[in-house]
Amino acid sequence: MKCFPLFVWLLAATTPAVVIRDDLADAWYKEIADKDAYKCVGRIATDTTSASGVYIGFGNGAHWLLTAAHVSITSPATVNFAGGISSAYSLIVSSRIAYDPYTLGLNDLALIKIHNFGSSNLAPAKFSKTLLDIPDAVADHPLITSVGFGQTGTGITGQQAGTQGTKRGFRNRIDAIGTTYTTGTAGQPDYNVRAYEGYMADFDNDTDGNNTLNHADNTHIPAGAKSSKSWEQTEGQLAPGDSGGGLFRTVDDQEVLVGINSYNVDGGVLGPAGTYGTWSGWTAINRERALWIRQHTGIEAVPEPCTLIGFTAGAWLLGRRKRRN
Ligand SMILES: [Ca+2]
Ligand SMILES: [Ca+2]
Who surrounds ion ligand 2 at CB < 5 A? Predict the structure, then answer.
């Protein structure tokens, strides 16, 4: 039996939304998503796909949405930014540019050119070109907010099929960027080492057992920099349909887009998708990827704040496709 964790792409063919704590009201997560700063996160819908994307503004004669490369849109789609009390914007996708090839969490990014945006006054996300600093002290790991329209459920039930389409946001702490996870015993047939790219955060519930990015024998995260077992208020986990949604960090009192929802990891010792102990992965927007965005859209990243520092790494989609290596 294979017992190593698997990537789960966050696309809902019907792509990942947010799985929540079992002891908190769903309204908490919807309220987060309803904040003005996150109105730029929309739902991408076609007849066959449900995913998420982030409006980043106007440039080179068009309005643009940033999403995940694994979100493949082959037919006209609408993008709806409705969530909670916000009004809706219906948009038509005219073309798509993706990193090719891409790796989940590393450069899982695509740009969607929007036709007929109209005279919307939707405020675009401001995106960073600077990787988050992840200090050794666990208590100083960056607190982030992730927003999407994926499936939901709780850390006990896991993600539930057919529940995507509602906008939610959750908080977590970034535990690492680009690491490997080991299962089995060295020298034995069950031994497996897998590389994971991008920002990652585990879904905690205040237990050592589900604090999976802290397991000394499994993760290659440096000993002094492993994860805390404490859950954040409104801690959550990515699910199918969340793919392409936004990862935000508060910088100088502004919400800045620092990553894009890319993948989740479950299976084996981590447990079923969306349960406590599984983890989320995001493509990190760094200087190179911000340059790629600018080249295609003419839109600039925000200037480097002194509160963000450099690093590197990467990814997902919703859709219930599991990739096994
Ligand atoms: Ca966590
Ligand atoms: Ca943890």
Answer: 202, 204, 211, 227
Q: What is the dihedral of CA 47, 122, 63, 255, to 10 degrees?
A: -100
Q: Pick the ligand that lies closest to the CA of residue 226.
A: 2
Going along the chain from its start, the domains and CATH numbers come out as 7-323 (2.40.10.120)
Is 188 in contact with 3 (CB distance < 8 Å)? no
CA gap 88, 169 in Å, rounded? 18
DSSP state of 31: H
pLDDT in tens, 61-92: 888 999 999 998 766 677 887 643 344 555 66
Q: Residue written as tokens 């609408």?
A: 78
The pTM of this model reads 0.88
What is the 274 CA–ligand 1 centroid distance (Å)?
13
Residue 271 Cα to ligand 1 midpoint, Å, equals 15
Closest to 113 measured CA to CA, from 151, 73, 146, 163: 73
Cα(114) to ligand 2 centroid in Å equals 38
